[in-house]
Write a structure and sequence with these properties.
Layout (H helix, E strand, L loop, with lengths): L3 H13 L4 E8 L2 E9 L21 H14 L3
Antiparallel strand pairs: 1-2
Length: 77
């Protein structure tokens, strides 16, 4: 598999959208086949992204579902 386009996209989006840190993993058959990292994990820009960094991931699906449900209730559906 060739991930050169994805690697280029990661670099481009980081620079264009001013995202400080990007870490992208692609898995196939439960095995990591690509890992692309770019940027820094601290605001000062001194510590590059590494394999040992931890991230907090938050889900926005519950608030979105709640708003959609309330809109349907308001419309009487």
């Amino acid at each position: 598999m060739d991930f050169s386009k994805l690697s280029h996209f990661i670099e481009t989006i980081r620079d264009t959208c001013r995202i400080p840190n990007i870490d992208c993993s692609v898995y196939y058959n439960h095995e990591e086949v690509f890992r692309g990292k770019s940027g820094y994990v601290d605001l000062a820009g001194t510590r590059p992204t590494s394999d040992h960094d931890l991230y907090f991931l938050y889900s926005a699906s519950k608030p979105t579902l709640a708003v959609a449900t309330m809109q349907l209730v308001e419309k009487g559906l």
